[in-house]
Amino acid sequence: MKLRLIGVNHRTAPVEVRERFAIPEGRLPEALQCLCKHPGVSEGLIISTCNRVEFLAHAENGHEADLRGFIREYFQVEPDKVDKYLYEYRDDDAVRHVFRVASSLDSMIVGEPQILGQVKEAYTAARAVGAVNSHLDALVTRAFAVAKRVRNETQIGTSAVSVASVAVELAKKIFGNLAGKTVYLVGAGKMSELAARHLLAHGAEQILVSNRTFQKASDMAEAFGGQAVPFEQLYDNVDKADIVISSTGAPHFIFRREHAEAFLQRRKNRPMFFIDIAVPRDIDPQVNELDGIFVYDIDDLQQVASQHLTDRKREADRAEAIVSDEVHRFQERLKALSVVPTIVSLQEHMENIRQAEIERARGRLGQLSPDQEQAVEAITRGIINKVLHTPITTLKTAAKDPEATTLIEVIRRIFNLRGSKEEN
Q1: DSSP state at residue 267
Q2: Are the C-beta atoms of residues 277 and 189 closer than 8 Å to each other?
Q3: DSSP 421
Q4: Are 126 and 136 in contact (CB under 8 A)?
Q5: Residue 133 and residue 187 share a domain
Q6: Domain annotation covers residue 60
Q7: N or C terminus: fewer CB in 10 A for the chain?
Q8: How many whole angstroms separate alpha carbon 391 and alpha carbon 344?
């Protein structure tokens, strides 16, 4: 299996770089199709979240998947502008990375549960457009099983915190506590829903929700006993909030300096706290220059998250051991699968010979009774099975060794097996 993975994440690139690569949900099918049309790529998967954008590809046999070239072409960026932020993995290293991502070992907040759902959504989107087939399907579905095993066999998720809960923790540092505070959720997605749950649990009194699709805002507001606000009235109501958590997925800033100045004036300079968990960002960084307004973006959450790392390190180490074990198992499974096409071809080849020889003998044998037909069938099958026993056993045993490719080639030549061989 020839795997290539390239991407940027919260460790390699700041938010202003990551937002240039962010692919909104509506553009994902088109991006996947472009990826699969890129030279050398036979299957593809794209994971785009607030903390990472990654491109995973299975390369066609005998080809190289130039994912750096794909990124330059698709995003129309110069190499010197982005190459220093990119990381790239191949083959077994790519397998390990995918397993670690699904298990939340590569997340900004180790152990957070959202990433697995995001990987599943990426997988579903890729399957819907035919971008994922046998090779990546086997890899990603195994990654889901690895993530489940990590959750079941470690306590990595016990003290895990989501991005939303870290945002709430920052709010508590600003205000001391959230009792009586009004919160405005801009965007009614999963991140906003998680934030609402944490805010209510910590004493928030009122929640306002605004979303471009008013029905979504209404549904979320109703679920939490809050109030939905039409998106067209967004700027007329923000000043009512002490805390604004924005996660819209808009391609541009929706809160600029002039908006914030108007909010402060209407609030008589009472402080406001903006938490921008969107990528691309929703809030212009210049807003943070105003006295009385505090703005934190997704990268600022890293500082709070790092305080929780010590508690989870021991469980993370156990999870890393599970991932290493699963990478080894996946390698062994792939090696075993590499000999299957040759075994099948060998069995079909010998069966064709057996059937042909029986037909040639029928003219000399004359009409056979059912018992005689059964005897001929048993004798010829027995001979074929004995002939095939040693080469098939040898292939299965050698599948785990480096010599497997050579042995496959030798057997195919000895038995004159035609057709393409399984690629490694």
Answers
A1: T
A2: no
A3: P
A4: yes
A5: no
A6: yes
A7: C
A8: 12
The CA dihedral of 323, 329, 330, 335, to the nearest 10 degrees, is 150
Residue 419 inside a domain? The answer is: no
> How confident is the model over 407-417, as pLDDT tens digits?
778 888 888 88
Q: Which domain holds residue 194?
A: 176-299
Contact by Cβ (8 Å): 98, 56: yes
Residue 421's alpha-carbon distances to 17, 37, 296, 332, 351, in angstroms, are 42, 24, 54, 18, 20
Rg from Cα positions in the chain: 29
Which CATH number is 59's domain given? 3.30.460.30
Domain identity same for 76 and 204 = no
Among 50, 183, 196, 305, the active-site one is 50
**Does residue 50 have an active-site annotation?**
yes
146 domain residue, yes or no: yes
* E strand or H helix that includes residue 173: helix 163-175
pTM for this one? 0.66
**Is the CB of residue 208 less than 8 Å from the CB of residue 226?**
yes
Is the domain of 210 the same as that of 130? no
Q: Are 32 and 44 contacting, i.e. CB atoms less than 8 angstroms apart? A: yes
**242 and 328, same domain (yes or no):** no
Task: For 354-398, write each residue's pLDDT tens digit.
Answer: 888 888 888 787 788 888 888 988 999 999 999 888 888 887 777
Residue 320 tokens read as 């890393």
Query: Within a domain: residue 267?
Result: yes
Residue that the structure tokens 């805002």 belong to:
217
Residues 37 and 151 in one domain: yes
- Assess whether 153 and 197 both reside in one domain: no
How far apart are the C-alpha atoms of 256 and 287, rounded to whole Å? 6
Q: Would you say 255 and 224 are in contact if contact means Cβ atoms under 8 Å apart?
A: no
Count of structural domains, the chain: 3
Tokens (6 digits) for 240: 């009512």
25 and 154 housed in the same domain: yes
152-161: pLDDT as tens digits? 998 887 655 5
Task: Compute the distance between CA of residue 188 and CA of residue 236 in angstroms, rounded to an integer.
Answer: 18
**Same domain as 141, residue 29:** yes
- The rounded Cα 331 to chain-centroid distance in angstroms is 20
User: Domain containing 259 — which CATH number?
Assistant: 3.40.50.720
Please state at what angle helix 309-338 crosses helix 134-153, rounded to 10 degrees. Answer: 140
Cβ 207 vs Cβ 226: under 8 Å: yes
User: How far apart are alpha carbons 292 and 263 in whole angstroms?
Assistant: 11
